[in-house]
Structures are given as C-alpha cells and as structure tokens.
Amino acid sequence: MATEIQQNLEKKNAEYASSFKEGHLALPPAKKYAVVTCMDARIDPAAAYGISLGDAHVIRNAGGNARDAIRSLVISEQLLGTNEILLIKHTGCGMLTFKNEDAHAVVEKNLGAAGKQELAGLDFQPFPDLEKGVEDDVKYLKESKAIPDSVTISGWVYEVETGKVRKVV
Q: Quick check: 169 and 134 in contact, CB under 8 A?
C-alpha cells in the first residue's frame, strides 16, 4: 500500500509530466556552476537563487557542507564542466544547534549499540558560528587539491526570515 507521501508524489508528478517540455536539455549545466546549500525544507534553491532548470547543479546536504559535497563537486567540474561554486548556508540552521557529542548521544539513545557502532567516529560537522562556517567551508574548497585554482568559489548566507542572500566571502 502506497503511503500518503508516495501517492502525492505520483499525483504531482503526473501533473508535472503532463506539460513537461524540457527533456531536450543537455546533461552539463548550461551556466556552468554548482551550488552547495542546505537540505533545509524552508529553502527552494531554484526560486531563492534564480536557478532555471538546466542551469546549475544543486548539491544539498545537512548544513550546506563542503566536505560532504566534495564528491559531487569533483564530478560536476571534472566530468560536466562547471567552473564556479556558490556555497550557501542559512540562518536558523539546525547545524548551529548541537555538538558532535549531542548527535552521538541521540543516535545511541534512539538506535542503540548497533547504531552507535556504525556511526562511531563520524563527524556530524556542526558549526557554532554561521559566518565562520561559511568562511571555513570556502577555505576548505579553495585549499582542496580536488578543486582547481581556476574555479571561482564564493560563500553566502541565505536568510530564511527574509528570503535574502548576503555575500560573506
């Protein structure tokens, strides 16, 4: 039996597909850039960042984390020709609210010893300061041997309260 979420997916996709006319778009992003941003459900990257279908790669993860995104960024650049990265974190991010120890304690409480063992040593990569988190991730990308010096990298904050972005670095 399909869940309500699955039923919604099927219904909304059928509506979308009935008027879909973008199947001709090329595999590489037309504007040759990638966005790393948070998976937060309050962010609509296409609308908030002005991304049309086919323009850019959008890589989403908890906190808009550069280290989590590196695999996708390398594929985006080396195999699909992007040459710019916009790293965009946001206000009110959950990654600002805990430390590694807190996350590991919750995992152990909820999943027991097996969950604790599987995630032992995992760095959840929280950050206590938003702007510093942006600066640190941009620095990581700029210093990475996997990202060519020719790639333009900038760091931004999206304000979930106003819908505005501001450049940090």
A: yes
